[in-house]
Write a structure and sequence with these properties.
Rossmann fold; alpha/beta; globular; five-stranded parallel sheet; 2 domains; four-stranded parallel sheet; 9 strands; 307 residues
């Protein structure tokens, strides 16, 4: 059976534990020897492309990159036919797509011939969540992921695919996640039920309608762009609705002293986060960027069955 990494909530805890461990363990550069990896970018990304290419090269794999302009996923030809074509040259397909259901269609088309990695979809961003957990562990627990139990992280702003994946990852570790967002930008009741059902070791998810309540006494604060790709037409409305959820110095003062700052980038300075906070000495943002490569190494090593 081919292994797939499509979401945090769909990956068993023991496998997530293996991914964290493999991400941090030494590698010999042959883990992907004789294996081809195809990267599909229906949605472009600086960090995802850079980290994926670096991780594949470090593990000794062969890589091919395809943009939407080149393959026209579901425009020039179907996602199924793209998958069947790439299955002839690759054992792993890692894709960044708009619609999460494309993964189900591609898996159905190729059976057990190919493993799939979700580099981002409209529903989840699991590779980012792995990197975030590693960055938090490096900062708070000397790299020991399991010791993040009891940590409190506040996510402020538009609750997105990043929020879902991060909340699922942290509550599985026994951490507490608070999401501060306007009602229309909040996690759905389905998300909350699923995340709380999967939570372990006392981990919790709580929702708040103000940023201030969410960050009170928090160890870490996380935010993301208010205007993600595909929402440009709603830019002014979103800025108006989310203005009270900017992560700035006043908000930091409500959290624990030395509160860690996270953002998955790209950042719109002066909108969801102020310059002085993004460049704060307690910012983990560039550690998150570094661990995107670390995370991809762990995911890919797990995919090919490393113990």
């Amino acid at each position: 059976m081919s292994r797939h990494f499509l979401g945090i909530s769909t990956t068993p805890t023991e496998d997530l534990t293996s991914i964290y461990r493999l991400a941090m363990k030494n590698y010999d550069g042959t883990e992907l020897a004789q294996r081809g990896v195809s990267l599909i970018f229906e949605k472009p990304s600086l960090r995802t492309k850079a980290s994926s290419l670096c991780a594949i090269e470090q593990l000794g794999g062969r890589v091919a990159v395809f943009t939407q302009a080149e393959i026209g996923l579901d425009v020039r030809e179907s996602a199924e036919d793209v998958a069947r074509t790439l299955a002839a040259t690759s054992s792993i397909i890692a894709a960044r797509v708009f619609d999460h259901s494309k993964f189900e269609r591609m898996i159905s088309a190729t059976g057990d011939r190919v493993s799939y990695v979700n580099l981002l979809s409209d529903y989840s961003h699991p590779a980012q969540a792995i990197a975030d957990v590693l960055a938090l562990a490096e900062h708070f627990t000397k790299g020991k992921v399991k010791d993040l139990k009891g940590l409190t992280l506040a996510y402020v702003g538009d609750a997105t695919n990043v929020t879902r994946s991060l909340a699922s990852a942290l509550t599985r570790l026994g951490a507490h996640v608070r999401v501060g967002a306007p009602n229309e930008y909040q996690l759905s009741s389905y998300d909350v039920t699923l995340i709380n059902t999967l939570a372990e070791h006392g981990g919790t998810l709580s929702l708040f309608s103000t940023a201030e309540k969410a960050v009170e006494g928090a160890d870490a604060i996380y935010t993301d762009s208010w205007i993600s790709m595909g929402f440009e037409a709603e830019a002014e409305v979103r800025r108006s609705h989310l203005a009270a959820f900017q992560v700035n110095r006043q908000l930091l003062d409500l959290a624990k002293p030395g509160v860690a700052i996270l953002h998955c980038l790209p950042a719109h300075r002066g909108e969801e986060i102020s310059d002085e906070v993004l460049d704060n000495e307690n910012s983990l943002i560039w550690s998150q960027v570094h661990h995107r490569t670390t995370a991809m190494r762990g995911i890919l090593r797990w995919i090919v069955g490393k113990k």
